[in-house]
Amino acid sequence: MAAAAILFLCLFFNTDTQAARLPALRVKGTKLVTTSGKTVRLKGVSTHGLSWYPEYVNQKAFTDMKKKWHVNTVRLAMYTAEYNGYCTGGKANRTALEKKVQAGIDYATKAGMYVIVDWHILSDGNPRKYEKQSIQFFRKIAKKNRNKTNVIYEICNEPNGNVSWKTIRTYAKKMIKVIRAYDKDAVILVGTPTWSQDVDAAAKSPIKGYKNIMYSLHFYAGTHGSWLRQKAQNALDKGLPLFVSEFAICDASGNGKLNTTEGARWMKFLRKNKISCVAWNLSNKNESSALLKSSSKKTSGWSSSHLTKWGRWLVKEYKKSN
Ligand code: IDC
After folding, report:
1. pTM to 2 decimals?
2. How far apart are CA 266 and CA 272, in angstroms?
3. Which one of the listed residues 82, 98, 154, 158 is annotated catalytic?
4. Of 43, 51, 223, 229, whose Cβ has the fewest other Cβ atoms within 10 Å?
């Protein structure tokens, strides 16, 4: 009797209980489904770089986003080469980033959200440049979180600078093996050439032999219009599962005017095809892709007056879409 009571209490108060209630995800055709076969569309927010804005990775921020912004996914953007990047910022910085990523995973888990661990390559355009570090990092993360159902791995944010799909695919296969050694069914997102726009290249020769792989498509509505949607449509028609792990409606610099007309077209396209999406970025940086006004100093507990125009637009879109 006492043992049963203790077991009950342990289950009840265990922080992993929330995650246990989040269904594991699988890829079926081009879509994301739960293990019971229900189609799901994730709606997410990405942090800015974890070294730049670590303060937004906190429990209340995540819970608030879920409750008030209709967000069910957080992406932890860990830059590899920019400002205090994982591969360029030294050992102490690396340890701090690993702690931050784990804290982010734990907060998301407790909030009952999916969480994307993003190896945010950018100026280091070729994912193989820091392949050794990537293997070590994902091995640690996958090992530690192998019993969770809510962790998604994004192995290379945006390959760029003439890196071919073939090179990315070689890297991806290695990373998939590393992650799957611990987490055998986890969903893995693979970046595509030209800042994750060339999904057509991936559609021509997708990665074979592994389940639950999706391909990243990134757009900034101020720069990327119908031509990129057409590319995406062609890839879908060939059966390629797409995941929009980063988007905004300003231009590709992360700044400039918002294009709400093109933004609305994109949202319609995503809803129609049940494509998951993650908005850039959770910070109060003075740039149009920041969701919080630079005058807002709060790191949680925001009201609509703390949100930028982009932030308010996004919350409205997320509210109406399923
Ligand atoms: C931008 C940030 C900006 C930061 C810069 C670093 O918004 O504050 O100074 O990175 O180089 C991407 C990238 C993402 C970019 C974003 C906007 O994945 O890191 O963030 N963007 O330029 N791809 C397309 C746009």
Report:
1. 0.95
2. 10
3. 158
4. 223
